Each structure stands twice: as C-alpha cells, then as structure tokens.
Amino acid sequence: MTLRSILIHPDPRLKKVCDPVPDITDELRRLADDMLETMYDAPGIGLAAPQVGVTQRLIVLDCVRDGEGEPRPIVMFNPEIVAASEEKNTYEEGCLSIPENFAEIERPAEVTARWIDRDGAEQQEDFAGLWATCVQHEIDHLDGVLFIDYLTPLKRQLITRKMQKLKRERARA
User: Fold this and answer.
1) Domain 12-172 has CATH 2.60.40.10
2) Has residue 67 got a pLDDT over 80?
C-alpha cells in the first residue's frame, strides 16, 4: 500500500463532479487500500478519491475512534444517499483537504446509503450520528462540494485565503 498526497483547497480537482466507477478493477481496489492507509495516517475518518487527485466516485471511511473498538473500514464505490431523516444534527466538521479548519455544519441526523463494495456487490446501510455526517461529507466531495460551501461567503473566503497561504508556505519549504 502507498500513502497518497492529499490535495489542499483551493484546487480545481476538488470542485469537479466525479465520474461513476463502471467496473471494480484490481487497480481501483489498490486505490481504495491506498486511500484507507492515507486516511488513517492523516489521521482522518473519511477520504474521497478527488482528495487524492482521482475524479471517480469512490470514498473510504471509518468512524471508529482509537480505543473505542475494532476499526471498521468501509470502501464505497458509486455511493449515494437513498433516504435522509428530517431530523438534523450539527457536527463540527473538518477536512483533510482544508487542514486545521473546522465549522459547525448541519446535516440530516440519519441517512441510508447504497453503494458497490470492493467485491462488486451492492450494499445498503443505515447510518446515524457521526457516521451519517461522514458519509454525507464524503459523498459531497464526489459532487465537488466542500464543507466550507455551507458557510457564509465571508467565512469561506477567510478559510480559502488561509489555505492559499498554507500552500505558498509549503511550496517554499
């Protein structure tokens, strides 16, 4: 497995709508494994393919925190939300592509997601709490939507400027 570089906002690849995955290939399974390793290393609880520069509909997630139980990595090809509760939850969200920036985001408290697993089988599961927030956040990435897109234009601009500065500093290092 290989650690992948995570794109930092602003990057035009993070704003693209991703293509559906037509077939689950060994290459895509390797990408999923790399993404899981990259996510755990970051550390994060979710990662979408566009964050590593691949514009395909693939996300990985694992919301089990260290010490809270066995890891539960999930690989989702072509994930979609097929149902969402009217009840809302607010979580402080962050993003590996927008490091060290967080904001309270309101989303449906429970969702039902459908996807294709790494073996090509269709899966469907109900998610609640942090898992529901995470799966929605990652699917947003596949549609070119970042969590800061839910903020006011001013807050979004401030974070974008911070990220531009961070990218300049990293380029010099």
Assistant:
1) no
2) no
CB 134 within 8 A of CB 63: yes
Which amino acid makes up residue 50?
Answer: P
Report the alpha-carbon distance of residue 155 to residue 36 in Å, rounded: 30
172 C-beta neighbours (distance < 10 Å), count: 6
Phi, psi of 34 (to 5 degrees): -60, -40
CA–CA gap between residue 35 and residue 58 (Å, rounded): 10
Structure confidence by residue, pLDDT tens digits, 107-158: 999 999 999 999 999 999 999 999 999 999 999 999 999 999 999 999 999 9
**Burial of 29 per CB tally in 10 Å (0-12, 13-18, 19+):** middle
d(CA 145, CA 125): 23
The DSSP 8-state label assigned to residue 10 in this structure reads: S
Chain-centroid distance, C-alpha 170? 23
Give catalytic residues, as residue numbers: 138
Residue 9 neighbours by CB under 8 Å, 6+ apart = 95, 97, 98, 146, 148, 159, 160, 163
Contact between 57 and 73 (Cβ < 8 Å) = no
Name residue, tokens 């947003």.
140
Q: Which of 49, 37, 43 is nearest to 76 (CA)?
A: 49
pTM flag (> 0.90) = yes
